[in-house]
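User: What would this chain look like folded?
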Amino acid sequence: MHRFLTIGFTGLILGCGDKGLFHIEVSESSEATVEGTGILGTAVELVGGLGFEGFAQMNIVNAQELQNQGVSPGDIESAELIELKLSVLSPSDGDLSFLDSMAILVSAPGLDTVLVASQDSFQAGEQTIYFELEGINLVDYVISESLTIETDVLGTAPEEDTTIEASFVLDVGVTAQGACNAARGE
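Assistant: Here's the prediction, encoded as structure tokens.
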């Protein structure tokens, strides 16, 4: 799993008197391999999840990147998924046409499981697909003790083993006070 964090420090320092929100983009990714059937293999239906291990039991608030910015759970006012994509890493000529549909669900202890993104168009030759987003505020999930991202997939296994990467960008809105604490090193 990879994590990246971007934030505009100039805006933080200039806006410390502002009551608005500052936005931090948190990116995560995880890989999974879908076992192929071989050239002479029989069709194997894909039903359920794809096994993105890196998305199980994530704790976004306690991620080192957010802690480095001085962000605590009380500073987070909003969290919205702004991008989710699925890409083929191998084979080099592989595509995502073995999928018929895919839904992305988020769950956390004590909270309902919610649909956050979906896609039902996987054309031959497409190696990267962007998902349609539901626009849900995920702040309660982000500040929970752990957040899990699950996949619900329908399709048929590809001929060759296919390694895919799911990646997302989460826009986290933090209070001006939390952002100023980060800028001051508190």
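The chain has four helices and ten strands. If you want, I can go into more detail on any region.
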